[in-house]
Amino acid sequence: MIRNVAIVLCLDVGFTMSSSAPGEECSLEQAKKIMTKFVQRQVFAESKDEIAVVLFGTDGTRNDLASRDQYQNITVHRSLMLPDFDLLEDIQDVIKPGSEQADFLDAIIVCMDLLQKQTIGKKYEKRHIELFTDLSSPVSEDQLEIIIWLLHTILPFPVDVDDGGGDPSAGVHSHIHRNPFPRKGLTEQQKEGIDVVRKLMHTLDEEGGLEEIYTFRESLERLSMFKKIERRPMAWPCQLTIGSNLSIRIVAYKSVTEEKVKKVWTTVDAKTLRKDDVQKETVYCLNDDVETEVQKDDTIQGFRYGSDIVPFSKEDEEQMKYKTEAKCFSVLGFSRSSQIQRHCYMGNQVLKVFAAKDDENAAVAFSALVHALDELKVVAVVRYAYDRRCNPQIGSAFPYIKDAYECLIYVQLPYMEDLRQYIFSSLKNNKKYIPTADQLSAVDSLIDSMNLVYEADDGETFEDLFKPSKIPNPHFQRLYQCLQHKAFHPNEPLPPIEEHILEMLEMPSVVKERCQGPLEKIKALFPLKEVGKKKEKMTCAFFDLFISLCPSVSQQLINRIDQFLENKGSQYYMKGINCIRVFREEAVKLSKVQCFNDFLQALKSKVEDKALADFWEIMIQGRMAFF
């Protein structure tokens, strides 16, 4: 279930945040980078979380708690709302360093007040504060107990760490730049600030006090990947039927399906960048000299078979469709699991099928079916139709039993037309290609060294060195990187691919080191030699034979060109021009220039008779002229 979260980004913009040693980036710029990364992830993940921004250390004051001498130099920069590119632009260009300082505990109180007031009447599963500071501002512990009590009251939920690297957060999540001045180390003020934060985190049940606190560098690393788009699980209720008398209420969810980039591209005017300035109009014309316009209602679709076009109307298409009475998940029979080969899995999704919720009878019957399949090592062969509009599929449903739940996993199986059967000659029939014992042993060693499952010394603990399910799609990461760059720098070229994107699909370093020895052995046992291409010499007898066959071959080529022109279409025109180009080249080689000129003269007459002016124009552009 998608969980809505209310987030306040609390940023220290005091004058100490803009100070830095020569050659180093100041804390404020690092914090803004982290905020930018965080908001980018939310925007591209189409998150429904709402984000507010509070600044402290500002020259002015704007918050609901401000009085004459309290909560000064704290500004609510943005109220709770969905993140967008306006917020990203604010972080990049609008937020500037201040010349004052403010107590970060006062800023936390302002954040809590904002959360309290702006979440009234709304449902949020979590509310939390992200604090970005170098802790160089003076801090007073006078109200620490009140803050702790309020945190327990309005921020009762810990924030989970995301699977893909996560948004590491607790009720209060501080990004502390531990060493803004590396040569001098931490100042006394920063040490005092860390002690206050440690007390605060201890009271929030954070063991050690600082486990949920990160340096700016650590935060940037953890936020380097864009989040995946959150999807709400959509239940598919149905009846699992076995024969005509047994029916079990089930519900299915997509477990695996290909994620595609949303096609939200819009054509806009290149100068104004306005969508409204571009008007699209589609017209349908006959393929004649004057391009006679016809109405869309007077057109139907057709399929080309050779030179003929077979009309096929919408009514024909509807009648052709397979008629399904309703959605179904019917068991056609059972098969041994060993008979369902893994290479036969197909389709673009995997379904997890459960018994219907709150139906005890269905749960008992479904559990019995799952356990029976598991014990007998068989799978159910199922007829699956999503709804009455869809063509039915044949698939396998195999048992999947875990400690927390049990279900059936449905995967589509191929029909006869989906299978590709190829027969290749065996390498064993050629003695030249039979490997030696040493070569076989070397390949075995290479395969063993490239094993991605690492076994510990105890022989029981296994570690997966390469987990595709934990690797984000590099295409999405690169796309989001480019979109974000173009949003802020529309006239600049795209940036290079970030290093961490390139490294995602690299071989694990452990495996790379381990396979160096076997690879060297492979190189020694399988030497590669460059083989030059042999030049075939044309004998005089063969040349004379080719000359004698030239008239018949050229006539076949002319006939083929005529067939292409009969079909009338740009793709056939291009095929015809390719034939003419070959005809011209070979005529030069064989000194048959007059033969080509005669053909071209005859072709010109045909073009004029058959109104193929567009084809002749392409010919001229391709410089297909007489000799």
UniProtKB/TrEMBL annotation:
<keyword id="KW-0233">DNA recombination</keyword>
<dbReference type="InterPro" id="IPR024193">
    <property type="entry name" value="Ku80"/>
</dbReference>
<dbReference type="GO" id="GO:0042162">
    <property type="term" value="F:telomeric DNA binding"/>
</dbReference>
<dbReference type="GO" id="GO:0005524">
    <property type="term" value="F:ATP binding"/>
</dbReference>
<dbReference type="GO" id="GO:0000723">
    <property type="term" value="P:telomere maintenance"/>
</dbReference>
<comment type="similarity">
    <text>Belongs to the ku80 family.</text>
</comment>
<dbReference type="GO" id="GO:0003690">
    <property type="term" value="F:double-stranded DNA binding"/>
</dbReference>
<protein>
    <submittedName>
        <fullName>X-ray repair cross complementing 5</fullName>
    </submittedName>
</protein>
<dbReference type="GO" id="GO:0043564">
    <property type="term" value="C:Ku70:Ku80 complex"/>
</dbReference>
<keyword id="KW-0378">Hydrolase</keyword>
<dbReference type="Pfam" id="PF03731">
    <property type="entry name" value="Ku_N"/>
</dbReference>
<dbReference type="GO" id="GO:0003678">
    <property type="term" value="F:DNA helicase activity"/>
</dbReference>
<keyword id="KW-0067">ATP-binding</keyword>
<dbReference type="InterPro" id="IPR036494">
    <property type="entry name" value="Ku_C_sf"/>
</dbReference>
<dbReference type="GO" id="GO:0006303">
    <property type="term" value="P:double-strand break repair via nonhomologous end joining"/>
</dbReference>
<keyword id="KW-0234">DNA repair</keyword>
<dbReference type="Pfam" id="PF03730">
    <property type="entry name" value="Ku_C"/>
</dbReference>
<keyword id="KW-0547">Nucleotide-binding</keyword>
<dbReference type="GO" id="GO:0016787">
    <property type="term" value="F:hydrolase activity"/>
</dbReference>
<dbReference type="InterPro" id="IPR005160">
    <property type="entry name" value="Ku_C"/>
</dbReference>
<keyword id="KW-0238">DNA-binding</keyword>
<dbReference type="InterPro" id="IPR005161">
    <property type="entry name" value="Ku_N"/>
</dbReference>
<dbReference type="GO" id="GO:0006310">
    <property type="term" value="P:DNA recombination"/>
</dbReference>
<dbReference type="InterPro" id="IPR036465">
    <property type="entry name" value="vWFA_dom_sf"/>
</dbReference>
<dbReference type="InterPro" id="IPR016194">
    <property type="entry name" value="SPOC-like_C_dom_sf"/>
</dbReference>
<feature type="domain" description="Ku">
    <location>
        <begin position="291"/>
        <end position="430"/>
    </location>
</feature>
<dbReference type="GO" id="GO:0003684">
    <property type="term" value="F:damaged DNA binding"/>
</dbReference>
<dbReference type="InterPro" id="IPR006164">
    <property type="entry name" value="DNA_bd_Ku70/Ku80"/>
</dbReference>
<feature type="signal peptide">
    <location>
        <begin position="1"/>
        <end position="20"/>
    </location>
</feature>
<keyword id="KW-0227">DNA damage</keyword>
<keyword id="KW-0539">Nucleus</keyword>
<keyword id="KW-0732">Signal</keyword>
<dbReference type="Pfam" id="PF02735">
    <property type="entry name" value="Ku"/>
</dbReference>
<dbReference type="InterPro" id="IPR014893">
    <property type="entry name" value="Ku_PK_bind"/>
</dbReference>
<dbReference type="Pfam" id="PF08785">
    <property type="entry name" value="Ku_PK_bind"/>
</dbReference>
<keyword id="KW-0347">Helicase</keyword>
